[in-house]
Amino acid sequence: MATSKKTKIIDWKTTDERFVVFLDIMGFKDFVARNSHDFVYNMMKSLSKSKKVIEATFLDDELGAEYKTKDIYTTSFSDSIILFSSDDSSLSFEMIITSAAFFISEAMKNSIPMKGAMAYGTISVDKIQQIYFGQPLIDAFLLQEEVNYYGAILHNSVDNYINKNTAKLSKEAKKFLLEKKTPLKSGLMQHNNINWFRFLGSDLEDLSKAKKDFEKIVNSLRLVTSGSPRKYIDNTVEFYNSL
């Protein structure tokens, strides 16, 4: 796969053990009904820019040559966005969880609320034929339907992977994990979450700027929602304040 002036040599098998993140754009049908076709199209293009940023980041020479042999593949349809890793290495785990956190954060900054889930296992990804299937994809889809705040959680298949590979995971990857009581439709449940809040602020450690960014996101979302959808906002605020 070629990106800019550099070439990535990807070790990618059609069927392999890999990670998948399923993201759902909240209130998409209502958003389409309330806005012009061009406005919605431009919104979707802003999400596409985030994908290009992710690709460019992992081509950075400062990250090391090992990143250039891995890939994060993104596809989308309607209100769903799916991220696949090339394999199940600890490096791929770091890349996909960081990418998912960045993707959600950028969407939220653009008033595009998202929720999702990440799963792990045998998945077939045929880019040419556009065939994507496997139990983890189903697991991620079903789990994201249970999420009751703006964020993404980990399926137990990923929890098992983390448990078996803790020593191999980088400190950076672990910073994008949040294990805590999580708002699900059935109530608060202890779950691992993808820490998209880390990408708020001018840098990853700027907490005061991060809080201002978060408050700006919340205020913009409240201006376009009423009734039951605001529960997602309230749950997200409670979750953030508890960190």
Overview of this structure, please?
This protein has 243 residues and is an alpha+beta fold. Helices cover 41% and strands 26% of the residues. It is built from 8 helices and 10 strands. The protein has helices at residues 28-34, 37-57, 90-109, 135-144, 156-165, 171-174, 207-222, 230-241, and strands at residues 2-3, 6-7, 15-25, 72-77, 80-85, 114-126, 131-133, 152-154, 177-184, 187-194. The strands form 3 sheets. Strands 3, 4, 5, 6, 7 and 8 form a 6-stranded mixed beta sheet that branches. The chain has a two-stranded antiparallel ribbon with strand order 1-2. A two-stranded antiparallel sheet has the order 9-10. Strand 1 and strand 2 form a beta hairpin. Helix 2 runs antiparallel to helix 3. The radius of gyration is 17 Å and the shape is globular. Residues 1-5 have low confidence and may be disordered.
Quote the average pLDDT.
Answer: 85
Number of helices: 8
Quaternary state of this entry equals single chain
Rg, Cα atoms, Å: 17 Å
Question: Which runs of at least 5 residues are low in confidence (pLDDT < 50)?
Answer: 1-5
Global shape: globular
Number of strands: 10
Helix content: 40-55%
Main β-sheet, in a few words?
Answer: 6 strands, mixed
Structural class: alpha+beta
What order do the SSEs take from the amino end to the carboxyl end, as H and E? EEEHHEEHEEHEHHEEHH
Percentage of β-strand residues? 25-35%
In whole angstroms, the N-to-C terminal distance is 39 Å
